[in-house]
Write a structure and sequence with these properties.
Number of helices: 9
Radius of gyration: 18 Å
Order of helices and strands: EEEHHEHHEHEEEEEEEHEHHEHEE
Number of domains: 1
Distance between the termini: 29 Å
Strand order of the largest sheet: 8-5-4-3-2-1-16
CATH class: Alpha Beta
Strand content: 25-35%
Structural class: alpha/beta
CATH topology: Metallo-beta-lactamase, Chain A
Oligomer: single chain
Bound molecules: zinc ion
Helix content: 25-40%
Length: 268
Amino acid sequence: MKIQMLPSTIDENGRASARQHLMSIIIDDCVAIDAGCLAMACSDLQRRQVRDIVLTHPHLDHIAGLPLFIDDLFSTLTAPIRVHATREIIDILERDIFNWAIYPRFSELLNDFGPVVEYLEFLQGANFDVRHLSIRSVAVHHKVSANGFIVSDGRVSIAITGDTAETDEIWELCNTTPDLKAVLAECAFPDEMDKLASVSDHLTPRRLAREIEKLHDHALPVFVINIKPMFREKVVEQIEALNLPRVEILEVSKIYEFESEPPVVAGG
Ligand SMILES: [Zn+2]
């Protein structure tokens, strides 16, 4: 399984920078988890291939690129873009984003080939299939109804917490997923902003360290995502100071590949 966090900022040389304002993770160049910067930062291949977008929750940093992505592809789509979300998220998108005031209600529009967007509702806690992936949604603890995901391609799984404060279920599910190769966990704020983290239902390095103690496999890699760009250096510094060998910061733009272990040949 190949995963890539799309960049959402550029540096002074016009290259992708590590500051992450928006969240969009592309799996195997064809499925997007969130669409924060999907329209702005996907590769040409991803622009051609991504037709399934799975949403953790409707906060702007996770959906900002969704209207722009549909708009960009509008006239060329021969099949609708499939937005996988809970009923609550779909209703918020239709009420607050695709309402003609913020952006067109694409669900009412047709191009020469037919509808351009299709909502596929999933239930929190349910399994659903997206292309070659099987995804389990898990309720996490955030300001709005939000999902974490365990994503499986049939050989390996990864967990994505999405935005969350302290929560139990996703960590318990990680413990019962035998082919789990990594957890992508949020850590939005530095420790000194604990109050804001608490009010906004996010984690700090200290809180994240306590969360990952819930994992039984002490070698399972944990990649940190969704660090607020203004506090990135501080959060990275504090995570490093915790000296947790399994924890690293997920590099924006970098392609990570997770493979199943080669089968052990008996008697050889
Ligand atoms: Zn959020």
